[in-house]
Design a protein that fits this description.
It is a single chain. This protein is 31% helix and 20% strand. It has 261 residues and is of the alpha/beta class. The strands form 2 sheets. A 6-stranded parallel sheet has the order 3-2-1-4-5-6. Helix 4 links the parallel strand 4 and strand 5. Helix 7 packs across helix 8. The protein starts with 8 loop residues before the first strand and ends with a strand.
Length: 261
């Protein structure tokens, strides 16, 4: 689902390496291309630390520029200030349409707000532990855990830890209907009511866009579905689905409305 339907967004991707596992970068970069073209890709960390060794191959593969930021104070994430300064410099360059901030740190909340105030689209990517303040400051927020190739950070308790730790996280199938919680169902119902026509029908694309505006972290993959259409089709007890022919051969427009007793 693109944040801009009229043109390809030029994006700056700024990654806080202290908050993101390098094993997730491939899926993350593939996800970002759905929203636009990453014209600037930078990652911030103290690259003199031993735990940064695993990043080298990943950065070369995806042409991400590492930015050195020394840790002057123990326990303080020094990458935050460097990322924020670079973001503002890039903003004033006038060459971008949006930013992708990759972090699970609430320290970037004010940055996201400031960028949006300047007309930038802001996509956040982080772990499910990300504070809500940062999530709602973005136009769209995506959890790393649902991306292709997401890797568990902790080894599972099995007899083959060394092997299992490298396996991707198993994602729920599209039959995992019970993962759709009541607040999400209420959000879907309210959104359909907001944009329905006189007969109660709402275009699925408009429904999805409005849901994300209301709840930036909404993503069908969080509930075990690949896309919004199969997710809503699973809610047959409360929703009706109508697939209509379009002007383009083989392309159908999907509409949805609430079932009323």
């Amino acid at each position: 689902m693109s944040l801009n339907s009229t043109k390809e967004l030029k994006l700056a991707v700024l990654i806080d390496a202290d908050n993101v596992p390098y094993s997730n970068v491939k899926g993350m970069m593939e996800e970002i291309t759905k929203f636009g073209t990453p014209t600037t890709k930078r990652i911030y960390a103290d690259w003199t630390k031993p735990n940064s060794n695993g990043w080298k191959a990943v950065l070369l593969e995806h042409a991400i520029t590492p930015i050195q930021q020394y840790s002057y104070t123990v326990g303080k994430n020094s990458s935050d200030s460097a990322l924020i300064i670079d973001a503002m410099d890039l903003l004033y360059s006038g060459k971008l349409d949006g930013f992708c901030i990759v972090s699970s740190d609430s320290d970037f909340t004010r940055l996201a707000i400031r960028l949006r105030e300047s007309g930038m689209k802001v996509i956040g990517i982080g772990e499910k532990k990300t504070p809500n303040s940062f999530i709602v400051a973005c136009d769209r927020f995506i959890y790393i855990e649902v991306l292709d190739g997401a890797i568990q950070k902790k080894k599972p308790k099995t007899n083959n830890n060394a092997i299992d730790a490298k396996k991707p996280v198993e994602k729920p199938t599209e039959k995992a209907l019970h993962k759709i919680d009541a607040p999400t169902i209420e959000l879907i119902e309210a959104t359909i009511e907001d944009i329905e026509d006189d007969d109660g029908w709402a275009f699925l694309g408009d429904v999805g866009n409005l849901i994300v505006k209301k709840k930036p972290e909404f993503d069908p993959r969080n509930y075990g579905f690949s896309k919004l259409t199969p997710m809503l089709k699973s809610l047959t007890d409360i929703l009706e689905i109508d697939e209509r022919e379009s002007d383009k051969k083989g392309i159908k427009h999907v509409y949805v409305r609430l079932r009323f007793n």
